[in-house]
Amino acid sequence: MRHFADLLLNKNNSKANDQVPFIQRRRGIEIKSSREINLMKKSSRIVATVLREINELIKPGMSTKDLDDFAEKRIKSFGAVPSFKGYHGFPSSICSSINNEVVHGIPNKNKIIKNGDLVKIDTGAYLDGFHGDSCISICVGEVSAKAKNLSDVAYEALYAGLSKIKAGNTLLDVAGEIEDTVLKNGFSVVEDYTGHGVGRNLHEEPSVFNFRTKELPNVVLREGMTLAVEPIVNEGTKFCKTLNDRWTVITKDGKLSAQWEHTIVVLKDGIEILTDRDF
């Protein structure tokens, strides 16, 4: 995901640049060719496979480092590279964010998963020059009704947004559908982080908002655009804060957060979900 404040900074700073291994900064929205989309399908399929397997593997008593080790080995077993590891110095192959942790949780051997935890696993894979990116929320064991409902609403919001994606529609159409779905269920949309274009770079233009905004241009969707759509939904306030590790973001009020994400390609009359786990 992208930080909203950084987007506003980059809007007025033409020299903004990402110094990231094996990723080169490109400007503007890229329309992918059929060949490029087929390559993205490969990296995205790896991500979908790893997340599906983590969902089956996870259980109370495991550490988040256990999951990270599994993900890294599994991604590499396909001949791919973990997209996240080393990205702006991030130390791991997955982000593992538990309960009130919103995004960018760092796996740790001392962070033990418990019965009732709401765990977000976000990961990416880089293969043949292209990235795939996806996130799931996992209800571990017997979770509270509020945790299950929050995850369900975040999932519903993702697919509500995806239903508005087709050539000729705008990103404001997508953002509005996501925001309305979340708010009508009594939750809040995190505004500090957004979805993004994805392809040769892990983060490309355009920014994919989960809420209505006039801060940046409203983008018309075109066939061949590839996007990572990722609503982040909080149980309470939308406001967040970053811990001293400079990565882990938590809810400001200590309440739960959920996230779901897919990498998709825009088609004339809809989308293809490249990170679909049902295959």
UniProtKB/TrEMBL annotation:
Q: Which GO BP terms, alphabetically? A: proteolysis
Binding of a divalent metal cation 2: at which residues?
133, 196, 230, 261
**Sites where the protein binds substrate:** 104, 203
Q: Which cofactor does it need?
A: Co(2+); Zn(2+); Mn(2+); Fe(2+)
Broadest EC class assigned to this enzyme: hydrolase
Record key words, sorted = Aminopeptidase, Hydrolase, Metal-binding, Protease
Q: How many and how are cofactors bound here?
A: Binds 2 divalent metal cations per subunit. Has a high-affinity and a low affinity metal-binding site. The true nature of the physiological cofactor is under debate. The enzyme is active with cobalt, zinc, manganese or divalent iron ions. Most likely, methionine aminopeptidases function as mononuclear Fe(2+)-metalloproteases under physiological conditions, and the catalytically relevant metal-binding site has been assigned to the histidine-containing high-affinity site.
Query: Where does the chain bind a divalent metal cation 1?
Result: 122, 133, 261
Pfam families recorded: Peptidase_M24
Where would I find the Peptidase M24 domain in this sequence?
Answer: 39-266
Keyword Magnesium applies: no
What Enzyme Commission number(s) appear in the record? 3.4.11.18
Annotated SUPFAM superfamilies: Creatinase/aminopeptidase
Stored PROSITE patterns = MAP_1 (PS00680)
Query: Domain of life, per the record?
Result: Bacteria
Q: Which residues form the signal peptide?
A: none
Catalytic activity field: Release of N-terminal amino acids, preferentially methionine, from peptides and arylamides
For this UniProt entry, what's an example GO CC term? Answer: cytosol
GO molecular function ontology, one term from the record: metalloaminopeptidase activity
Q: What does this protein do?
A: Removes the N-terminal methionine from nascent proteins. The N-terminal methionine is often cleaved when the second residue in the primary sequence is small and uncharged (Met-Ala-, Cys, Gly, Pro, Ser, Thr, or Val). Requires deformylation of the N(alpha)-formylated initiator methionine before it can be hydrolyzed.
Q: Which family does it belong to?
A: Belongs to the peptidase M24A family. Methionine aminopeptidase type 1 subfamily.
Q: How does the annotation summarize its subunit structure?
A: Monomer.
This chain's protein is named Methionine aminopeptidase
The organism is Prochlorococcus marinus XMU1424
Gene that this sequence comes from = map
